[in-house]
Amino acid sequence: MILIDGKKTSLEIQDEIKEEVIYLKSKGKKIPHLAAVLVGSNGASKTYVNAKVVACERVGFESTLVRLPDTISEDELLHKIEKLNNNAEIDGFIVQLPLPDHISEKKVTQAISAKKDVDGFHPENIGRTALNLPAFLPATPFGILQLLERYNIETSGKHCVVVGRSNIVGAPISIMMGRNSYPGNSTVTLTHSRTVNLKQLTLMADILIVALGKPEFITADMVKENAVVIDVGITRIADKTKKSGYCLKGDVKFDEVSEKCSFITPVPGGVGPMTIASLLKNTLLASKRK
Hints:
The protein is an alpha/beta fold. Helix content is 39%, strand content 17%. The protein has two domains: 27-113, Leucine Dehydrogenase, chain A, domain 1 (Rossmann fold, 3-Layer(aba) Sandwich); 139-272, 3-Layer(aba) Sandwich (Rossmann fold), CATH 3.40.50.
């Protein structure tokens, strides 16, 4: 079994981006600028956004953090987004999810300019991804592709089973794994909460990608020998033995599944860090396109 180290790979990609930024500076060209909008004080969201700001500093990007109260109205937030769309200094920006209940995530996602949508959630980018046209790929699925590529994992002709159909991970990665490219060219099965023969399907998977949000849902008896297992899930579980009071669990029961597979991502330290690397790559691309 080979452990797919997302943290190490993410740092390698960031080093590559840092070299590009140094080159841009040497030529007197514009430095990529990423903005992040944080609404409210959700602890996990704060952690994610702070990690993105630190990553920007590491690679030499300019960054802006826009903090807004959770009482902000939907119209006010949409106005803030429009200002970012029209700010020529900012190459790309994200609105950290989840948002307060009174704000429509769908409206917010569609309000972000597709040209600055470095999270890759805008319908235009999703559509272009499906058609295998140049697009900002959704950050987490993009990170999964980079892990498969950098670990030289064969995907052509393989049966890829995706568990979970969210618009952020499951649905887009199912499209991307089926495209005529590498990584891709897989035969893809997308499963979800209404799938009745899930175990039968996961046992057929050469590549199993799990993005369900249910801790340790995938057990060893659901995975075939030598499968590649990509665990996207991350859930906080109360644990009094930890100083933090919790531990992090993936959607895969790592200890037993790792005994059967050829490659596996850990949680934490697997797919998570790659999301940030993808976000930085998309921001660099946005800056170049301008």
